[in-house]
């Protein structure tokens, strides 16, 4: 496969200031890089300031863009308000938000303590609605037509065992996306979501696909397009959803997963049937058709 290139034309996010939560690592970092390349000012925030500062330095050197790293635990409203004030002070205003921060790990649900459930739900759901509410109020007060992108998952609507706190929280975020897309549309505020399939990141792989599992499962079998996602593919979609090119789209969730979620299709178990087996099956079915064609049972 050829390397994936940036999709939008230069300057597509010029004069926009975008906050990316969890922007110091993984997919957040990849989105931040592309937004900078497209001319946006970017604010990255999460708990670990040293990680954010290293990322900011790296991306600033690489892109020549303006990036501000700020420590913020998205479970703390006063820290969120601090990020918004600092962003306005640095760049004059805020136009976009990516609710990307998350906590997650696989575990049998009955083995989880109350605190283990809380920690995931609080980062994902509480963190997303706190940030959304704080920015929404600011946008409505200042008549800014802001845009929010929520990073969801496909199990927000299919459900999934062994990641139940994450599934509950991401489903709540999706409900918020669609509900507020309607309620805040009169203010020109748009909310959309991306549901990514597997995109290799250290954060996700350490907690969701550890070596013990990697030895037993292969993505080739699970994903119809036979590969994991490239970060630039997700960054392209994210930039489009935050840009004015998507100005007629709101309340939408776009799945980007190589077809993984389609595994639920009822007859998809047939994917391993060989050509010889198909020939035998066709013969058998045709034979059962014959009596009915001749008026028999
Ligand atoms: C074919 C196979 C398919 C592979 C699929 C691949 C990928 C698909 C992707 C699916 C969707 C992905 C969604 C994602 O969200 S990926 C993002 C992952 N990134 C992160 O999680 C980063 C941040 N995470 C963390 O910091 C931590 O993981 C944590 C969320 C736990 C928070 O850390 P913190 O330090 O604040 O909390 P503690 O360590 O003190 O723990 C709090 C309580 O939680 C309990 N705990 C922690 N880990 C586990 C575990 N593994 N099992 C059970 N319990 C756990 C811990 O014990 C604490 O509870 P108690 O005090 O009661 O003991
Ligand atoms: N990678 C994948 O295959 C998939 C990922 N996703 C979603 O993509 C997003 C990014 O995940 P990914 O890049 O893989 O993983 P990462 O672990 O790299 O990203 C998670 C980020 O969340 C931040 N974070 C965690 N807790 C908090 C908190 N309390 N306050 C603020 N920030 C916090 C972390 O920074 P810090 O530790 O500094 O706080 C980290 O930067 C998540 O929403 C995830 O659910 C969805 C489907 C698939």
Automatic annotation (TrEMBL):
<dbReference type="GO" id="GO:0006633">
    <property type="term" value="P:fatty acid biosynthetic process"/>
</dbReference>
<comment type="similarity">
    <text>Belongs to the short-chain dehydrogenases/reductases (SDR) family.</text>
</comment>
<dbReference type="Pfam" id="PF13561">
    <property type="entry name" value="adh_short_C2"/>
</dbReference>
<keyword id="KW-0521">NADP</keyword>
<dbReference type="InterPro" id="IPR002347">
    <property type="entry name" value="SDR_fam"/>
</dbReference>
<keyword id="KW-0597">Phosphoprotein</keyword>
<keyword id="KW-0276">Fatty acid metabolism</keyword>
<keyword id="KW-0576">Peroxisome</keyword>
<protein>
    <recommendedName>
        <fullName>Peroxisomal trans-2-enoyl-CoA reductase</fullName>
        <ecNumber>1.3.1.38</ecNumber>
    </recommendedName>
</protein>
<comment type="subunit">
    <text>Interacts with PEX5, probably required to target it into peroxisomes.</text>
</comment>
<dbReference type="InterPro" id="IPR036291">
    <property type="entry name" value="NAD(P)-bd_dom_sf"/>
</dbReference>
<dbReference type="GO" id="GO:0019166">
    <property type="term" value="F:trans-2-enoyl-CoA reductase (NADPH) activity"/>
</dbReference>
<keyword id="KW-0560">Oxidoreductase</keyword>
<keyword id="KW-0443">Lipid metabolism</keyword>
<dbReference type="InterPro" id="IPR052388">
    <property type="entry name" value="Peroxisomal_t2-enoyl-CoA_red"/>
</dbReference>
<keyword id="KW-0275">Fatty acid biosynthesis</keyword>
<keyword id="KW-0444">Lipid biosynthesis</keyword>
<comment type="pathway">
    <text>Lipid metabolism.</text>
</comment>
<comment type="function">
    <text>Participates in chain elongation of fatty acids. Catalyzes the reduction of trans-2-enoyl-CoAs of varying chain lengths from 6:1 to 16:1, having maximum activity with 10:1 CoA. Has no 2,4-dienoyl-CoA reductase activity.</text>
</comment>
């Amino acid at each position: 496969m050829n390397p994936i290139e940036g999709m939008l034309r230069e300057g597509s996010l010029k004069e926009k200031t975008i906050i990316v939560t969890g922007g110091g690592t993984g997919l957040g970092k990849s989105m931040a890089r592309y937004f900078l390349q497209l001319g946006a000012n970017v604010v990255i925030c999460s708990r670990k300031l040293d990680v954010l500062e290293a990322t900011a330095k790296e991306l600033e050197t690489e892109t020549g863009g303006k990036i501000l790293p700020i420590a913020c635990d998205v479970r703390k409203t006063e820290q969120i308000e601090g990020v918004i004030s600092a962003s306005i002070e640095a760049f004059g205003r805020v136009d976009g938000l990516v609710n990307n921060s998350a906590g997650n790990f696989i575990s049998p649900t009955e083995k989880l303590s109350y605190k283990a459930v809380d920690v995931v739900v609080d980062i994902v759901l509480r963190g997303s609605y706190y940030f959304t509410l704080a920015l929404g109020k600011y946008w409505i007060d200042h008549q800014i037509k802001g845009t929010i992108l929520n990073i969801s998952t496909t199990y927000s609507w299919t459900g999934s065992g062994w990641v139940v706190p994450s599934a509950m929280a991401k489903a709540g975020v999706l409900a918020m996306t669609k509900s507020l897309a309607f309620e805040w549309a009169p203010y020109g505020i748009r909310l959309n979501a991306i549901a990514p399939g597997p995109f290799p990141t250290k954060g996700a792989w350490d907690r969701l696909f550890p070596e013990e599992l990697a030895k037993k499962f292969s993505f080739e079998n699970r994903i119809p397009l036979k590969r994991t996602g490239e970060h630039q593919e997700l960054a392209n979609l994210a930039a489009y959803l935050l840009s004015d090119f998507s100005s007629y789209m709101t309340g939408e969730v776009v799945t980007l997963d190589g077809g993984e979620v389609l595994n639920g299709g009822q007859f998809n178990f047939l994917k391993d049937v060989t050509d010889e087996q198909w020939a035998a099956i066709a013969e058998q079915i045709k034979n059962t058709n014959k009596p009915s064609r001749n008026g028999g049972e």
